[in-house]
Design a protein that fits this description.
This protein has about 150 residues and is of the alpha/beta class. Helix content is about 50%, strand content about 20%. The chain has a single domain, classed as STAS domain (Transcription Regulator spoIIAA). It has five helices and five strands, in the order E-E-H-E-H-E-H-E-H-H.
Length: about 150
């Protein structure tokens, strides 16, 4: 399951994946839709932190879909956060499939703090990422307790 938090003022998105089975096709569709919406509302570079923690990376179908999205996205900065060295390797390979352009930058990091720091330095503006990370985690814990 994925949880989302969005900030209109800074055109920032945080997505956090719950531990457990990999995201479903429905989860991944929601993620692509959220990223497209983020890009449509951006006046400059859109910003996203995608925090996946440990677990399986996307399957081949979704690696291709995410790479295709990246090719059409326009100016965007994405920090991909995972504690899994294996998953970081998969994410780096995805970036090789569709390398970043000057308008698009993607960084694969181990912690959300590293991701926030990199994004703020890339965008040269303050972002609401700490609050968004908190909101996404809160949404996830509320959903987990309701299950």
């Amino acid at each position: 399951m994925l949880s989302f938090a969005y900030d209109d003022a800074t055109v920032s998105l945080v997505v956090i994946r719950r531990r457990g089975p990999p995201p479903t096709d429905e989860d991944n569709e929601r993620l692509v839709a959220a990223l497209r919406s983020l890009r449509r509302h951006a006046r400059g570079a859109a910003v996203a932190i995608l925090a996946f923690g440990e677990g399986d990376g996307p399957n081949a179908k979704w690696r291709r879909r995410f790479a295709d999205f990246k090719a059409e996205a326009g100016p965007v900065r994405i920090a991909l956060v995972t504690t899994s060295a294996l998953y970081r390797g998969v994410l780096v390979a995805m970036n090789w499939m569709k390398p970043s352009t000057a308008e698009q930058r993607t960084m694969v990091v181990e912690t959300a703090a590293e991701g926030r720091q990199w994004l703020e330095s890339e965008c040269d503006r303050p972002l609401a990422l700490g609050r968004l990370c908190f909101e996404a985690r809160k949404q996830m814990s509320t959903t987990e307790h309701a299950s």
